[in-house]
């Protein structure tokens, strides 16, 4: 289970997240939706431990990941796969070495690395690219390579920031299919996206607005459009956010 307890994240004086609360069960497939700047990436970055909350707590399983020391953080990160704009492929290393990177960091034997990387590349349909440089791949292939690197450690949690952005329909469907396949195998998936329509196997949706989780659509009728979180939203704002 993943739980955010009253989480605030400030970049300098700007609060990107303002008292966010939610729970997601193990094995769920969650979409983070909301306008640009709503705080979707910030949630993923906190779960990846690229950022620490300014206040509040984050539980993953039974452990708090809000304030880990270096050793604890590197241990936790082995159970998490992340793909997003802010994690780049190494341009001077071939595709095999890019995917092998997380395994080399944890000191896996070379024979295990060979078999795991080959399996990950095959899974994303890129077996033939192992000796190529990332720059020789298309945008969609580069994204699938990032996904192979994110899952090669067999993580329990995969975080994907805009994994279908700028892809054509066919490439996007392939990326979505991969994430859904991992979810079927029991991996918890959280995706930040502006393209919710591309995803089918969704168990939870979190709508964000101005750094807070908006009440679920069902709440709109129960409390007349008033807030259930830490922040007030006008009925117009909520209706627009949910496309009502
Ligand atoms: N490194 C940073 N330094 C300062 N402000 C930041 C930083 N990263 C994000 N922000 C601000 O925090 C807020 C939330 O950003 P975040 O990237 O989480 O939103 P988002 O919903 O993912 O947006 P998008 O859909 O455009 O990716 C925005 O106002 C953004 O400008």
From TrEMBL:
The keyword Nucleus does not apply. It comes from the Bacteria. The keyword Chaperone does not apply. Keywords: ATP-binding, Cell inner membrane, Cell membrane, Membrane, Nucleotide-binding. GO terms for molecular function: ATP binding. InterPro entries: AAA+_ATPase, ABC_transporter-like_ATP-bd, ABC_transpr_LolD-like, P-loop_NTPase. Pfam families: ABC_tran (PF00005). Residues 2-235 form the ABC transporter domain. This is ATP-binding cassette domain-containing protein. It comes from Limnobacter parvus.
């Amino acid at each position: 289970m993943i739980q955010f307890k009253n989480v605030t994240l400030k970049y300098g004086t700007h609060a990107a997240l303002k008292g966010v609360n939610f729970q997601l069960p193990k094995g769920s497939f969650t979409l983070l939706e909301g306008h640009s700047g709503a705080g979707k990436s910030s949630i993923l970055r906190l779960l990846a431990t690229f950022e620490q909350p300014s206040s509040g707590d984050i539980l993953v399983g039974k452990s708090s990941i809000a304030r880990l020391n270096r050793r604890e953080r590197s241990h936790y990160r082995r159970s998490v796969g992340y793909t997003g704009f802010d994690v780049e492929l190494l341009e001077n290393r071939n595709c095999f070495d890019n995917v092998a990177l997380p395994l080399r960091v944890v000191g896996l034997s070379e024979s295990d690395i060979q078999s795991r990387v080959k399996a990950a590349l095959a899974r994303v349909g890129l077996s033939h690219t192992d000796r190529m440089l990332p720059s020789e791949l298309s945008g969609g292939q580069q994204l699938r390579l990032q996904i192979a690197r994110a899952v090669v450690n067999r993580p329990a949690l995969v975080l994907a920031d805009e994994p279908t952005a700028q892809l054509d329909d066919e490439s996007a469907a392939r990326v979505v299919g991969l994430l859904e396949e991992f979810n079927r195998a029991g991996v918890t998936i959280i995706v930040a996206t502006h393209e919710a329509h591309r995803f089918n196997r969704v168990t939870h949706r979190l709508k964000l607005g101005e750094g807070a989780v908006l009440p679920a659509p069902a709440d709109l009728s129960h409390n007349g459009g008033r807030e259930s979180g830490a922040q007030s939203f006008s009925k117009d704002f909520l209706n627009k956010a949910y496309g009502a």
